[in-house]
Specification:
The complex is a heterodimer of chains A (about 280) and B (about 80).
Chain A: E1 2-6, E2 12-13, E3 16-17, H1 19-37, E4 54-64, E5 76-86, E6 90-98, E7 103-114, E8 124-126, E9 136-137, H2 143-152, E10 158-160, E11 165-167, E12 174-178, H3 182-185, H4 196-212, H5 218-221, E13 222-231, E14 241-252, E15 255-264, E16 270-280
Parallel strand pairs in A: 5-9
Antiparallel strand pairs in A: 1-5, 2-3, 4-7, 4-13, 5-6, 6-7, 7-8, 10-11, 12-14, 13-16, 14-15, 15-16
Chain B: H1 3-20, H2 43-57, H3 69-75
The chains are: A alpha+beta (about 280), B mainly alpha (about 80).
Chain lengths: ~280, ~80
């Protein structure tokens, strides 16, 4: 997949490339490559019982060579992506965004789920009925998926990335409640949108850091360099989210790493872990 | 393929998946064993197991209802 884009205001937020737009676009590109490879329309992907299947994002990482504010209005972006599969249910894409000044490398992983009730807490794994599949096959689960299962199983204590070393911690430094904006946070299938998770994280993170340093505005001073979202569950619209910041640290004089957990308030279940590196904009 | 050989090959697949998860090999399986509780195979690894079984035995497994070793033994 290859396409071009001119950055305009709909793709931007807080003087940078909008991370919310970026996640939605990445998801859309992944999904487009997937159903094109299966030679069907998105709504025609069904399991053996004829139930409509949804692509469920299980992990998404984005990594910028600088930060999202390096993407400017009217920049021309070249977008290239590839997708591979393990079996018929797990799909892995790599998508690159490149301008003359900046790059983003993203990796996305999905499986398929079926929702046979109105309860978003009860999504089950499923497998599509496929007649032809043109997507290249992997012989084993790649590192993106392997790290996810090891983390979910509690078998790793640290996540080592190019940008930072994150400790896998449970005890919150602080906890904040996030009340949904349903028009923004829930997708067309009635599920908490995968693209909403990192923004819920950033809204709560900004609330915390703006309280610590009221003279500074976190959202204007820091832009995302790295984000890694491990998805573990979904949430009903009547619920709310508990944001738990479990680790934060200065990596150097202009970068901060944070690690957080999002939980459903109703039952305390973890629905995501999010690891992030942000760069102070005016010091780079 | 004799039943006993199929069980041994399925055990080898289970141990491959467990090894990928950082778990030790188990010496034998019994039909009532559950993937999640008894074999500590999580949802992603269960999908991995399904892929290996389907390729090895040329069968189709329904991951939506897959809970026990016996469900696989009956199909292979």
């Amino acid at each position: 997949m290859q396409q071009n884009l001119s950055i305009a205001l709909p793709q931007m937020a807080v003087k940078a490339l909008s991370e919310n737009w970026l996640f939605k676009e990445l998801g859309h590109l992944h999904w487009k490559m997937l159903y094109k490879g299966l030679n069907v329309s998105s709504s025609a992907i069904k399991n053996a019982n004829g139930d409509r299947l949804l692509a469920t994002f299980t992990r998404v990482t984005i990594e910028c060579n600088s930060h999202l504010q390096a993407f400017k209005e009217n920049d021309q972006v070249n977008i290239q992506g590839t997708i591979q599969r393990f079996g018929q249910a797990m799909y892995f894409s790599d998508i690159g965004f490149q301008t003359d000044n900046a790059t983003i490398q993203a990796a996305l992983m999905t499986n398929f789920s079926v929702n046979n009730s109105d309860n978003n807490k009860k999504l089950g794994n499923s497998k599509p009925v496929i007649t032809t599949n043109d997507i290249a096959k992997l012989s084993k689960i790649p590192p993106l998926g392997h790290e996810l299962r090891m983390l979910k199983a509690g078998r790793i204590q640290q996540l080592i990335t190019k940008n930072a070393l994150f400790n896998i911690l449970e005890d919150p430094i602080i906890e904040l409640e996030y009340i949904f904006n349903p028009y923004y946070d829930f997708n067309g299938a009635g599920l908490l949108y995968f693209a909403a998770y990192p923004i819920i994280n950033d809204i709560c993170e900004a609330r915390y850091f703006n309280t610590k340093k009221p003279q500074e505005r976190w959202e204007l001073n820091y832009a995302t360099t790295y984000k890694d979202v491990f998805y573990e569950g979904n949430c009903n619209i009547s619920d709310s989210i508990l944001y738990q910041l479990v680790e934060w640290e200065h990596l150097n004089e202009h970068q901060i790493k944070t690690a957080s957990i999002l939980r459903r308030k109703s039952d305390g279940e973890k629905i995501a872990r999010i690891f992030s590196v942000k760069t102070k904009i005016n010091q780079q | 393929m004799p039943e006993h050989n199929k069980t041994i090959q399925f055990l080898a697949i289970i141990n491959q998946v467990r090894e990928n998860l950082g778990l030790g090999a188990i010496p034998e399986i019994s039909p009532e064993m559950t993937f999640k509780e008894d074999l500590e195979i999580d949802s992603i690894s269960l999908e991995e197991l399904v892929v290996y079984v389907e390729e090895k035995f040329d069968v189709e497994l329904d991951i939506e209802i897959l809970k026990t070793v016996n469900q696989v033994l009956k199909i292979i």
